[in-house]
Amino acid sequence: MRIKERREALGLTRTQLGDRLGVSKVAVRKWELGLTMPNADKLPALADALYCSIDELYGRTPPQAAS
């Protein structure tokens, strides 16, 4: 996941991001290091806090719609 990259680009600390999501800075650190993953119910709020899509957090380009 690209949490650290997005967080740092916005100038947020782990504590600030954690506060926005209702989790500890330790939880944010574990996500950034890939030790744990955010719960699925946190992903929309995480993407919103980092001003990106869930796909962007995963470094994924969504598929194009069929014509």
Element layout with pairings:
Layout: H1 3-9, H2 14-21, H3 25-33, H4 43-49, H5 54-57
Helix pairs in contact: 2-3
The CATH class is identified as Mainly Alpha
Termini separation comes to 30 Å
Poorly predicted sequence stretches spanning 5 or more consecutive residues:
none
Instruction: Report on the biggest sheet.
Output: none
When the domains are counted, the total is 1
Structural class: mainly alpha
Which fold name fills CATH's third level, the topology? 434 Repressor (Amino-terminal Domain)
Q: Tell me what the CATH architecture is.
A: Orthogonal Bundle
Using the CA coordinates, give the radius of gyration.
12 Å
Element-level helix/strand string? HHHHH
Mean pLDDT, nearest integer? Answer: 93
Query: So what's the overall shape?
Result: elongated
What's the total helix number? 5
**Percent of sequence in beta strands:** under 5%
β-strand number: 0
CATH superfamily, by name, is lambda repressor-like DNA-binding domains
The proportion of residues forming helix, as a percent range, comes to: 40-55%
What features would you describe in this structure?
With 67 residues, this protein is mainly alpha-helical. The chain has one domain: lambda repressor-like DNA-binding domains (434 Repressor (Amino-terminal Domain)), CATH 1.10.260.40. It is built from five helices and no strands. The longest helix has 9 residues, at 25-33.
